[in-house]
Amino acid sequence: MLQKMVAHRIADPLILRLIGKWLNAGYMLDGVVVRTDEGSPQGGPISPILANIYLHFVLDLWFEKKIKPTCRGEAYLTRFADDFVGNFQYGRDAARFQKDLADRFRKFGLELAEEKTRVMRFGRFVRVDLAKTGDKPDTFDFLGFKHVCGTDRGGKFALIRIPCEKSRRKFLAKTKEWLKQHMHWKRQDQQAQLTMMLRGFYQYFGLYHCKPKLDGIRREVERQWARTLRRRSQRHRLYWCYLKSQPWFALPYAVSTLHPTV
Predict the structure, then answer these.
(1) HSE-up of 217 (CA within 13 Å, CB side)?
(2) What is the pLDDT of residues 58-94, one digit of tens each?
(3) β-pair partners for 86
């Protein structure tokens, strides 16, 4: 089915034959080549592109041509790779989409990850309804962000996106492991590497409401670095008052550039 989808847009037989060889190449495990009868090889350079093509036909086009025209209200689908969020104005449309989606995926040999799939109420009207009972709206994680029904300074509804716990924990684990492996590098070289890692994290998560979380990440990286430096010697004098006064210990702060969506 995937090869037919590719052939729908590509007519060059050489390209189609090359893709077919890629699909049948299998993968190597402990030096042994393992042949596969279905799917694309995991870790293959072309696999993400082929997966996007497959889901474009299976999900994106199907949603636009079959699901959206039959909904009572507004309906939107946001997908990145194999993660996606469907937004519906009415709960009945969302429930029908969930049922039809399982059937659609089964037809094309796919399955929904049940532990990551749920139907929930979200948005400005949900916050107003739940305010009467004192309950808080549900939140969800998508592409590393935790999405929250919040308010702006004027008390109006605002979609708040902050780094989710998994993203923060994964980044701190990465910096901790790097410091462990390079604990004897020169301090200036360690500073340059940590600065680069923090700036990369800031550039992805530098939204309006993320500043407090990003500052917390910076403080934790400082603590990791200080502990690593102190492990170099049992007679260290690297106390906080000394470290904070040293220019080589300075790490960049996050700067939020985007405003909230109201």
Answers:
(1) 32
(2) 999 999 999 999 999 999 999 998 899 999 999 999 9
(3) 77
Confirm if 98 and 119 have CB atoms less than 8 A apart.
yes
Amino acid symbol at 45: P
Q: Is the dihedral of CA 117, 138, 165, 251 positive or negative?
A: positive
Q: What is the DSSP letter of 40?
A: P
Q: What is the number of other CB atoms lying within 10 angstroms of the CB of residue 40?
A: 21
Q: pLDDT category, 259, cuts 50, 70, 90?
A: low
The amino acid present at 247, given as its one-letter code, is P
Q: Which residues contact 245 (CB under 8 A, 6 or more apart)?
A: none
Residues 150-191 have pLDDT tens digits of 888 888 888 999 999 999 999 999 999 999 999 999 999 999
Token code pair at residue 248: 């080589």
Q: What is the pTM of this model?
A: 0.81
Strand partners, 142: 145
The H-assigned helical ranges of 123-239 are: 124-131, 165-181, 187-205, 211-230
Q: Phi/psi of residue 155, each to 5°?
A: 85, 5
165 Cβ partners below 8 Å, 6+ apart? Answer: 146
Q: Name the one residue in this structure whose structure tokens are 């949603």.
A: 63
* Element holding 31 (H helix, E strand): none
Q: How far is CA 143 from CA 45, 80, 135, in A?
A: 21, 8, 26
- Alpha-carbon distance of 55 to 80, in angstroms, equals 10
